[in-house]
């Protein structure tokens, strides 16, 4: 195993204290400007975790076999994972009903509501909104999470194919795919007639089960093994795709996701995934 510690506030005193908690003769090795790893024996590091949380650092025990050259596919959620917003909440804000829709979104992400039913309920509230509001969300509100482009660049450098699979909407997923240089995108399509949203979603909903199916389908198309796949997400509807991947990374995720993920990042950006796997 290797203990990966990273964060913008990391300094020598942190590493010295952690080394003292872990013990052993190995020394920390630097991975990136704000990331280090320490070879360790497998075990429980509750004191290290508690210290890192207190110091706003991410610390992760990573299996030695989990290194970038091993992988061939990374599948990622979009809203609150690759991008910093929940698109449907921002669309709803155009109609003055953001708080109403965001409350449903939050409950669905915590796993308290059926995702498909909750999505149809939220989309129905958007009926009559001009299509131009979707572009307005992109122009004024959509931002990529820190490290998103760096992580995609790392995937490309290692020949790892990338897929964004989202319970959000094609209008945004296609933009994210094109802007970041992803290989594939799968998402929901809003019905638009005469330039206005009808309040309906076309076709089957991309829910948690569909996300898992898309990962498996693309994995098989690429001729990869399960051990060559990574999934990254933040909400309960990402759990199924994370469970069928070799590695499930919870990125600034809901507690239920962090509990079931292989690894969790709560402080650093998406480039922290590369640090986990490149040591």
UniProtKB/TrEMBL annotation:
InterPro entries cross-referenced by the UniProt entry: HAD-like_SerB (IPR050582), HAD-like_sf (IPR036412), HAD_sf (IPR023214), PSP (IPR004469)
Enzyme Commission number: 3.1.3.3
CDD domains according to UniProt: HAD_PSP (cd07500)
Signal peptide interval: none
NCBIfam families, alphabetized: HAD-SF-IB, serB
Xref: PANTHER family: PHOSPHOSERINE PHOSPHATASE
Protein name: Phosphoserine phosphatase
Species assigned in the record: Methylophilus aquaticus
Gene that this polypeptide is encoded by: serB
